[in-house]
Amino acid sequence: xxxxxxxxxxxxxxxxxxxxxxxxxxxxxxxxxxxxxxxxxxxxxxxxxxxxxxxxxxxxxxxxxxxxxxxxxxxxxxxxxxxxxxxxxxxxxxxxxxxxxxxxxxxxxxxxxxxxxxxxx
Length: 121
Known about the structure:
Elements: H1 2-20, E1 24-25, H2 30-54, H3 56-61, H4 65-81, E2 86-87, H5 90-120
Antiparallel strand pairs: 1-2
């Protein structure tokens, strides 16, 4: 259930990024967006933890800014693995990473609020 929720949020985040940023596209085919969401979810579940552990010294030295670039790399890796999901240039990737971060932040805040209500009852 948790994986499906992460998949839904990732797909929504990629949709929002493609809608808001001119340089990000899924070719207007919904199945490409669904595949990109699945790949992005898997990349974040498998690759990101390994890269994060390996980058701990850089994360500490940059006071966490390196985490942004790890997230950017996960988005770029998704674009590399999914044929019709494209990111045109570094600045499009930066904007897309910011949008994905905001969508995930909002989803986490909404989920945390719901979990607190469940515990209260």
